[in-house]
């Protein structure tokens, strides 16, 4: 094979006449045959665990306490962000007025 002048177009390892590679791996089994009862049992156990945890009073209290703490943190961060934006706006107004006075 003749190499062209541009080296980016030439691939010495490419053979257009080589046979197409055939996949020799074993055929995959259908989804239902592969996972007959594993997902059913896992789902039943997970559902029972979640139902037990959500019906337990202590777990409900801890979940609500954690949610309240998280919501309080989010509200505090939003208020902090509002204060920072107000400070930036005040600085921008100050520098705009200063620039207009100098003209």
In terms of topology, how is this protein built?
Blueprint: H1 31-34, H2 38-55, H3 57-102
**Oligomerization status of the protein chains:** single chain
Encode the helix/strand succession as letters: HHH
Low-confidence stretches: none
Q: What is the total tally of β strands? A: 0
Task: Explain what the structure shows.
The chain is mostly helical. 66% of the residues lie in helices and 0% in strands. It is flat and about 80 Å long. The mean pLDDT is 82.
Describe this protein with a few key phrases.
single chain, 103 residues, mainly alpha
Give a quick rundown of the structure:
With 103 residues, the protein is an all-alpha fold.
């Amino acid at each position: 094979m003749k190499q062209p002048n541009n080296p980016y177009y030439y691939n010495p390892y490419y053979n257009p006449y080589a046979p197409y590679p055939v996949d020799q791996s074993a055929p995959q089994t259908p989804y239902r045959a592969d996972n007959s009862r594993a997902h059913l049992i896992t789902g039943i156990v997970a559902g029972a665990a979640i139902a037990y945890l959500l019906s337990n009073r202590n777990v409900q209290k801890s979940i609500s306490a954690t949610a309240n703490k998280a919501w309080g943190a989010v509200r505090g961060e939003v208020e902090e962000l509002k204060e920072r934006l107000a400070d930036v706006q005040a600085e921008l107004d100050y520098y705009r007025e200063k620039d207009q006075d100098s003209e």
